[in-house]
Specification:
The protein is an alpha/beta fold and 201 residues long. The protein is built from 6 helices and 13 strands. Strand 1, helix 1 and strand 2 form a beta-alpha-beta unit. The chain starts with a strand and ends with a helix.
């Protein structure tokens, strides 16, 4: 069973629908016992960093997610879910993230001809043999919707990057914690392969 964390953030339904399409049993939940009893956990998210952290704390999910990581239950953060796994974000100064991974979330730098938020398809450069990308080729395309991007402290955890006005750390993996800045549930066959690889861990 895959537990999809419900903390009043967006894209829960699309993640659940993609998992069901793959035939993966899943539940949308905020109950501690359901989450810690799951085989795998997904932290989705669309919205603002500060509001999302408030919701996680209100439901006691910040400590549950840290326990998930400590127990090495495979955990996948998607979009805002990736950002929340890190320490801080320029979007919400003074708000601490979960701090499960080391790094900062920065605003995509403004440049002439570059639209922010970054919305649309972008190719990935794959590196460091990420387990989510098994069976996928270099320069595969995935779908992004974001104004902020990850700058991870440890280059070895970065498994995919893309270029959008700057170098974006698009996917990371450390122990059993995985995360994607893009939306695998909206990225066609490539995204479904990523979710299938996560489910098969």
């Amino acid at each position: 069973m895959i537990a999809v964390i419900d903390y009043d953030a967006g894209n829960l339904k699309s993640v659940k629908k993609a998992l069901e399409y793959l035939g993966e049993p899943c539940c949308v939940t905020r109950r501690r016992q359901d989450i810690l009893g799951a085989d795998k956990v997904i932290l989705p998210g669309v919205g603002a960093f500060g509001d999302a952290m408030d919701h996680l704390r209100t439901f006691g999910l910040d400590e549950v997610l840290r326990e998930v990581a400590a127990r090495r239950i495979p955990l996948l953060g998607i979009c805002l879910g990736l950002q929340l796994l890190f320490e801080s974000s320029e979007e919400s100064p003074g708000v601490s993230g979960l701090g499960i991974l080391k790094g900062r979330i920065l605003h995509i730098p403004r440049a002439e001809g570059l639209k922010v938020p970054h919305i649309g398809w972008n190719s990935l450069h794959l590196q460091n043999e990420g387990r989510l990308f098994r069976g996928l080729s270099e320069q595969c395309y995935v779908y992004f919707v974001h104004s902020y991007f990850l700058q991870a402290d440890e280059p070895e955890i970065v498994k995919a990057t893309c270029e959008y006005g700057t170098l974006i750390h698009a996917s990371v993996e450390q122990d059993e914690v995985f995360a994607c800045q893009f939306h695998p549930e909206k990225s066609g066959e490539v995204g479904l392969t990523i979710l299938k690889n996560f489910a098969a861990l």
